[in-house]
Structure formats: structure tokens, C-alpha cells
Amino acid sequence: xxSYVVSAFGLRVKLRPTAVALAKAVxxxxxxxxxxxxxxxxxxxxxxxxxxxxxxxxxxxxxxxSCHGDDTIAMPLSTYRQVRDWGRAIREEIVEQRMxxxxxxxxxxxxxNELALTAREATTILSWLDGGxxxxxxxxxxxxxxxxxxxxxxxxxxxxxxxVPALADHIVRRVTVTTNLTTTRxxxxxxxxxxxxxxxxxxxxxxxxxxxxxxxIGAWLPWQPVASPPAPNAFDLAAGAPxxxxxxxxxxxxxxxxxxxxxxxxxxDSRLMPGPQDPAYSRRAVREVxxxxxxxxxxxxxxxxxxxxPSADATAESIELTARLPDGSVHVLLWIPxxxxxxxxxxxxxxxxxxxxxxxxTLTAEPRTASATARLxxxxxxxxxxxxxxxxxxxxxxxx
Length: 400
Prior knowledge:
The protein contains six helices and 21 strands. By secondary structure, the protein is α+β, with helices and mostly antiparallel strands. It has four domains: 4-36, no CATH class; 52-140, no CATH class; 155-266, Jelly Rolls; 286-389, Jelly Rolls, CATH 2.60.120.230.
């Protein structure tokens, strides 16, 4: 009599035909029981009028999908079943304000690609989680977003492969590459192309080499793949200048080799400008002021802040960046009440902010023994017609 080999739960067993039929029936029963033992139960009480296919999926698409996709750094939340199975964990992360991983407090400058949940969004999700997590009508699901076409770069620089150990918590790598440019070029944007999105948490591009590169010129974050100054502003990249790329990794469940690249896109007039000595050229050149904790930097000319790149050591608990105008009024550009070094940010302002000459920028870190830096990316005030004047307030006591 013919016999068969059946595999189940990693075991290989030789069975006769009648036993095969019985094994298949048992297997189907086990699968049904396993599914019903998951996060979805038919007797869950439903008391929420909010539905996954209505409000919930759209909030998740805006705030969570960039990190919680099918091939991204965190567990996928792309389907109703995935979201429901992680319901308790999602609730805890929202209540404890750990997710989404946005650090800048509201009420000061507004930033592009802001990831934090609004009060209404958080209340909506919690209401749905506590109300039985009803699915809703699949006909109300939004159409899948189409990925944007990748524009060919003017210059692509491949980085050396990076080995990321399994289960590593937070690894920072700094890589220097040569550009081989023979003349000064104007860079409209620098874009990181991740090789393995499951392990890359953030990347920053700097012009220059060494431990303290000259200028920040670009960043990649899961929710912000590009950070570039408003046109026609651009960064000057001198002939022969190297680039330093800072890569932030978190390990997967196995060792991974990442092979990222940097794409440079030159400004349209990059070849036409005679050089930095030309007045029109310098008016469009983005410059930088680096403010260190415990010190102050004074603007010698009017300038417009379009981006802030904060960083601090592991001892920093909070950082605050303020601008004191010549009339004595004070404006808070950025307050990070709980600094998280494992989630670095490059913050591009929704509306660039103009400041007059004589403005003093100050960075305060808590505790005072912590070391912190804020790189302010500046465009000339005359080149920013849509910039807003800074709102002012009276000085406030140090935040705790």
C-alpha cells in the first residue's frame, strides 16, 4: 500500500492514506484554533462608531505607514488584521507618547512632515481601540498610494557596504566619500537612497570631512525622504570637497548588509554662475550657524531660518533653542522636552522664519552638563519673500 510523508510543525511522519485524511482534518482544526486564539475574537464588544476603513486607516497612512510598512524598520501595520493584533501595544505607545517618534513640542515653529498625532487623532484611535476595533466597509478604504518616480541624479555616490549586527539597538556610522568635483557646484538637494530600509533609521549628509563637518546639506528619515531648501536657494559644494554621511541603524532579527548611496541634484543655474564672488550667486547660497549648548551665536546680517538639525549626547534630557531679537523680545524656535538620541531629526520649517541682524541664538540643554548642538540652515532674508516674521514672547523660566 502506498504511504505518504506529511510535514506538520517541523515534523516529518510517514502515514497511510486513511491516516493522511485524518491528519489533514486535524491540521485544519489546529489552524482554525490558532487563528481564533489571536487578537481577533468574535465576542469582542463593539461600542465605537469609528471604523478602521474610515478614519483609522487614514490616520495610520499619514502618521505610521512610513515606518510600519511591509519592508520598513518596524512591524507592519498595513492591514486591518495587523493593526488589530497589535491593538494593545498601539494603545500603550500612544498613551505613553512614545509613538509616533516625534520630539518637537507644538506651539512654537511649525515643521514639514510633522509626525506627532494631533489631540483629535489620538482620541479617535483610542476610542476605536477601546470600542472593539470595528472594521467597517472595505469599500471605504483609500486607494493605494503610488510611489513617486525616482528622478535620475546628476551625481550618484555609492557608500561602502555597512554590516548591521542582529538585534543591535542603535548604531551610528560616519562614512566619508569623495565627490571628485573639479569646480564649485550648487547642490539643490542631497538624497540618501537606502539599501535596506528594515535597518536604516536615519541618515544625514554633510559637506566636508572630519569629526565636525562644515555644513549639513541633506537628510533621510523614514517619514521625510528629502530635506531641501526652498528654490532657488542651494548649497555651495567646493571643488574637491568630500561628503560625510552619518548613518543611524537598528538591527534586524538577523545580520544585514546595507549598501546605501547619495544622489546629488545640482541647481539649474549651477553651471552658469561664475562663482561665489558673484553677488547673485551669494544671495542664493545657503549658509549655516551652529549653536552649542551653553553659548550663543549672533546673526551679523538678516537671515531666514528654513531648517534646524538638533543633536545631543546621551545624557541630554531636553533641549530648547531660542532667538533674542535686538528689541529684547524672545522667540522659542524649538523645544524638545524629551530628547531621544535613537530618533534623530532634521526639522524643515513649514514657513521659514526671518530674523534681523543682531538676533542672538541660544541653545539650552538639561541637565546643564549635557552637550548639545543645533545647526541652523539659513537663506538670505531677501531671497525668502514668503518667510514669516518671528512671533515674540517674553523670556520664560528654564524648562524642567
